[in-house]
Write a structure and sequence with these properties.
single chain; five-stranded parallel sheet; alpha/beta; 5 helices; 138 residues; 39% helix
Length: 138
């Protein structure tokens, strides 16, 4: 089973929809969630999630533009082993700066509300983590 940390989604209906959508697949279990970056990193350090689903703030063109997002992204990628990351964006178009971070099997960018794309990213990361080091390049 792949463990999932959800970051940047406030308590409420949106979080419950995301959690239930992820857990609809029995291979994924949401183990924690946090909106606050410091709390998210504390959870990540203790739980060592296989995958972190990171919701990007609306209008964010680059994660470098938001120090909190950048800190969470780098923090979960610096874990040992590194967490795979799925960045969710509400933007109608994914900026080149954000899409340039995608690494097949390790980091994916999906549009908020696209459950098929989210599940595809989760499965890709899960398969890579289950069979080898998630960041090892062929």
């Amino acid at each position: 089973m792949m463990t999932v940390l959800v970051v940047g989604v406030p308590e409420g209906e949106q979080l419950e929809l995301l959690r239930s959508g992820i857990q609809r697949n029995p291979h994924f279990q949401v183990v924690s969630h946090a909106c606050d970056p410091a709390v998210a990193l504390a959870h990540a350090r203790v739980l060592l999630p296989d995958i972190t689903v990171l919701s990007l703030p609306a209008g964010l063109d680059s994660i470098e533009a938001d120090p909190d997002v950048l800190r969470v992204f780098r923090g979960v990628r610096d874990l040992d082993p590194p967490s795979g990351v799925v960045m969710r964006t509400a933007a109608p178009r994914i900026s080149r700066a954000v899409s340039g971070l995608a690494v097949e099997g390790a980091v994916h960018v999906v549009r908020e509300g696209d459950s098929e794309e989210l599940m595809r990213a989760l499965r890709t990361i899960g398969l890579r983590r289950a069979s080898c080091d998630p960041d090892e390049m062929p």
